[in-house]
Automatic annotation (TrEMBL):
Keywords: Hydrolase
Name the UniProt record assigns to this protein: Lignin beta-ether hydrolase
Source organism phylogeny: Bacteria, Pseudomonadati, Pseudomonadota, Alphaproteobacteria, Hyphomicrobiales
Pfam families linked: GST_C_7, GST_N_3
Organism name: Sinorhizobium sojae CCBAU 05684
Gene3D superfamilies for the chain: 1.20.1050.10, Glutaredoxin (3.40.30.10)
Domain Glutathione S-transferase UstS-like C-terminal: 94-215
InterPro entries: Glutathione-S-Trfase_C_sf, Glutathione_S-Trfase_N, GST_UstS-like_C, Thioredoxin-like_sf
Length: 229
């Protein structure tokens, strides 16, 4: 059976960059499941699978369609119980929900502002128009003004990683000795930045940098299959 993972990309179809898609790519690899990636731009998403979703990732597994990275992880855990766990039990699911909330309310907004023009410039023209209109409506200002404000986010970004930095003093992964879905959540955010922007968010010698490098090496170096910007 061929699984298909629909992913978000820019003009270069070989460089999917969505943080949520990267969570799912590593989740599928964690479970040892084969899949093909079907890349597309922002304006193509509503057309996928006859309008099945407005977001990616979208996973087709046989006759089943699942969207949203967390819902896909839950689906994979329930469907492929005999394969390595993504959560390590109900406590792991609850922890992953907390990590997701922290990542999406703390890391994602900062990275979005830091990299906003980098993302725009990597898109096809039709997607650039959509991205500019939707993001300027969201932020209430031109993209260029958002990017200018993003310089403050860049300077403050390291401090936002302090909860992760503290945990990694005691264990190599958020999941403990081995990675779990919680690791993939945070990895997805930093992988997004790595792929779209030349801005350096992680410093040499930081335990978070060491953790991120370990995550890039997971599953035969899946994270390194797309080079840094």
């Amino acid at each position: 059976m061929t699984r298909r993972l629909y992913a978000l990309c820019g003009t270069d179809r070989t460089r999917p960059f969505s943080p949520h898609v990267w969570k799912t790519k590593l989740s599928l690899a964690h479970k040892g499941l084969d899949f093909d990636v079907a890349p597309g731009g922002f304006t193509e998403i509503p057309k996928l699978e006859r309008g099945a979703t407005t977001i990616v990732p979208l996973l087709r597994d046989g006759d089943i369609l699942v969207s949203d990275s967390f819902e896909i992880a839950l689906y994979l855990e329930a469907t492929y119980r005999e394969r390595p766990t993504l959560f390590g039990g109900e406590g792991g699911k609850a922890t992953a929900r907390f990590v997701e909330g922290w990542s999406q309310t703390t890391l994602h907004p900062a990275i979005g502002r830091i990299a906003i023009m980098d993302i725009h410039d990597r898109l096809d023209p039709v997607d650039q128009a959509y991205f500019r209109q939707s993001r300027e409506q969201r932020f209430g200002k031109p993209l260029e003004a958002v990017a200018e404000a993003g310089q403050a986010d860049l300077e403050a970004f390291s401090a936002k990683l302090e909860p992760l930095r503290h945990m990694l003093k005691f264990q190599p992964f958020l999941g403990g000795d081995r990675p779990l879905f919680a690791d993939y959540i945070v990895f997805g955010a930093l992988q997004w930045a790595r792929i779209v922007s030349r801005q350096r968010l992680l410093a040499d010698g930081d335990v978070v940098t060491d953790w991120f490098e370990r995550c890039l090496d997971l599953h035969d170096g899946l994270g390194r299959s797309v080079t840094a910007a």
